[in-house]
Design a protein that fits this description.
It is a single chain. By secondary structure, the chain is of the alpha+beta class. It has one domain (26-252): outer membrane lipoprotein receptor (LolB), chain A. The protein is built from 4 helices and 13 strands. The protein has helices at 2-26, 29-41, 125-129, 247-252; strands at residues 44-55, 58-69, 73-80, 88-92, 95-100, 105-109, 138-148, 151-160, 170-176, 182-188, 194-206, 209-219, 226-235. A 13-stranded antiparallel sheet has the order 6-5-4-3-2-1-13-12-11-10-9-8-7. Strand 2 (58-69) and strand 3 form a beta hairpin. The longest helix is centred in the N-terminal third of the chain and has 25 residues, at 2-26.
Length: 254
């Protein structure tokens, strides 16, 4: 009887250890962010999107196509309105170029331009071209959990690594526990003030995976303005190579 009791206690103890270890692994903040980025980007992807810039006196709409390969390569091509058609943005590693068809000129963008508005929207160049990796360019801390829009979420704080020219001083990311998708991003400045909040809505199956198809950014001090990006089509199974992401393709893609 004593031996049996001892065995039972040992089994319970080991079960508790396994439970604690698995719970800790489930709350590894870097792994959570990595899974979220993988779900949102995939190895290679293509998407068709529209952007609506809302201001008190006007609304502006932009349509675009986007390609990406891992964390290091992305290309965005503007298809409308007519005056902006052909404008393109290319990222290769840590370098970013912008092609401006009205002057037929390609400009390499310095790090100082990453914080500037992207095509008059509330997104920065860094936001749209994904110049930084949330997994590799930040340190991570698990802050807790919270329910948002019916989803239980992990709350992760991200602080940029010292050597990376990243726009925000601190980011708080809310990630769904069930599917590892973003539902809210809060961006803070060097004084600790909230700069803007990005909301992710309308999770749908697209391109063979679940993803939020509506992204809305609202500046903290200007609640009467916002920018909305809607994904209309996505494909995460495209066959694409690094050679596609060339400076030449900025002017030749159609």
């Amino acid at each position: 009887m004593k031996a049996q009791t001892k065995t039972i206690r040992k089994t319970i103890f080991l079960s508790i250890i396994v439970l604690i270890a698995s719970n800790a692994a489930a709350r590894d903040p870097r792994e959570i962010i990595g899974r979220m980025e993988e779900n949102m980007r995939g190895d290679a992807s293509y998407s068709e999107m529209s952007m609506e810039v809302v201001r008190p006196r006007y609304t502006r709409e932009v349509s675009m196509r986007s390609w990406s390969l891992g964390d290091d390569y992305s290309l965005i091509y503007v298809t409308a309105p007519a005056r902006d058609e052909g404008t393109a943005f290319l990222k290769r590693g840590n370098e970013i170029w912008n092609y401006q068809p009205n002057i037929d000129r390609t400009v390499k963008m310095p790090p100082s331009m990453m914080s500037q508005s992207w095509m008059g929207s509330d997104f920065t160049n860094d936001d749209l071209v994904n110049a930084s990796s949330l997994t590799n360019d930040y340190s991570h801390e698990y802050l807790g959990e919270e329910e948002i829009d019916g989803h239980m979420c992990h709350i992760i704080e991200l602080v940029p690594n010292p050597d990376n020219p990243i726009v925000y001083e601190r980011v708080v990311q809310y990630v769904t526990q069930e599917h590892y998708l973003p539902v809210r991003t809060e961006n803070f400045d060097e004084r600790g003030g909230l700069v803007n909040t990005i909301h992710f809505h309308e999770i749908k199956s697209m391109g063979g995976r679940l993803m939020p198809t509506r992204m809305e950014i609202i500046p903290e001090e200007q609640s009467n303005r916002k920018t909305v990006i809607i994904t209309h089509n996505a494909d995460f199974g495209i066959d694409i190579s690094e050679s596609f992401f060339s400076i030449e393709n900025l002017t030749e893609i159609n």
